[in-house]
Amino acid sequence: MKSAFRITFVYLAVASAWILLSDRAIALFTDDVAALTAYSSAKGLFYVTVTSLMLFFMIRKEIAVRNDAITRLNRTLEVKGELIHELHHRIGNNIQVILGVLGLETREGDFSAEAKDRIVHRLLAMRSVYDIVYDYEDMREISLRKVLAAYARTASRNVRVRDDFPETPLPIETMVTLLLVLDIVLEALRESGYGGTAEMSSPEERTLTLRMDGYSGDAGNFLGRNETFVRAYLKSIRGEIDLLPGDPAEIRVRYM
C-alpha cells in the first residue's frame, strides 16, 4: 500500500507541475493560435513519454524489491522445512543426553542434592544453545561466541568470554556437545578447589581454550570422575581435551 501511495503521489506532483508550468512557458514564446496548438500537442506527447518512462522504472524497482523479499521468504521457509524434518532426530538426541547425564549422576544409587545441581547445570548448558537458536533464521549453524556468552550469564559458573573471541558458526549438535563438556570441566575445576575465573578464548580454528590463573591441576587427572564421560562426548565430534600446565594453565578442547 505504501508503494502505491508513493508512486501515485510522485505522478500527481510531476503531472500537476508540468501542466501548470508548461502552459505558461509556451505563452511566453507565442500568442499564435496555430503555434499554441502545435506546441500543446508536442508538450502532451513529451509528457506522456516522460511519465511512461518514469512509471516504468518506478514499477520495475518495486517489483524487484518484492521479488527479493519473496526470494528471502522462500529461503527462510525452505530452511524451516529442513529443520522440521530434523526435529524428531534432535529431540531424540537430547533425550539420550539427559538420560546419559541421569545415568552418570545416579550410577552409585545416590541421588543427592549435589547430583541434582550437576544435572541442572547440564540442562542449563543445553538451554543456552536453544535460547540463541530461537533468534536465528538459519538454525543449522549458530555463533559459538553468542552461545558461550549466554551460558556464562545463566550457568552461575566462574567463567567469562574474551572480547576477541571470534564469531564462529557451528552446527547445533556440535554446540550442545561443547557446552556439556565445558560445564563438566568447570565443575571439575570447582571440585578441585579452584576459585578463580576461567577465561574462554579461541586462539586457533576449531579450538576452545580455558585459561586459568593460579591453577595447578594434574594434567593426567584434571577431569576427575567425569573423564570417561567427557571423552565419550568428544568422540561424537572427533574431539580431544588436554591440560597444559603453567601460569596461566590452559585446558584446550579441539573438535572437528
Topology, element by element:
Layout: H1 2-29, H2 33-105, H3 113-133, E1 141-143, H4 144-154, E2 159-161, E3 169-171, H5 172-191, E4 198-201, E5 207-212, H6 227-235, E6 240-244, E7 249-254
Parallel strand pairs: 2-4
Antiparallel strand pairs: 1-3, 4-5, 5-7, 6-7
Helix pairs in contact: 1-2, 2-3, 3-4, 3-5
* Strand proportion: 5-15%
Number of domains: 2
Order of helices and strands: HHHEHEEHEEHEE
Helical percent range? Answer: 55-70%
> Biggest sheet: strands, sense, closure?
5 strands, mixed
Query: Structural class, from helix and strand content?
Result: alpha+beta
Helix count? 6
Rg result: 33 Å
The CATH C-level class name of the largest domain? Alpha Beta
The name of the CATH topology of the largest domain is Heat Shock Protein 90
What's the arrangement of strands in the largest beta sheet? 2-4-5-7-6
Whole-number average pLDDT? 77
Shape descriptor reads rod-shaped
Look at the structure and name the CATH superfamily of the largest domain. Histidine kinase-like ATPase, C-terminal domain
**CATH architectural group of the largest domain:** 2-Layer Sandwich
| Total count of strands | 7
Q: Quote the distance from N terminus to C terminus.
A: 50 Å
Ranges with pLDDT <50 over ≥5 residues? none
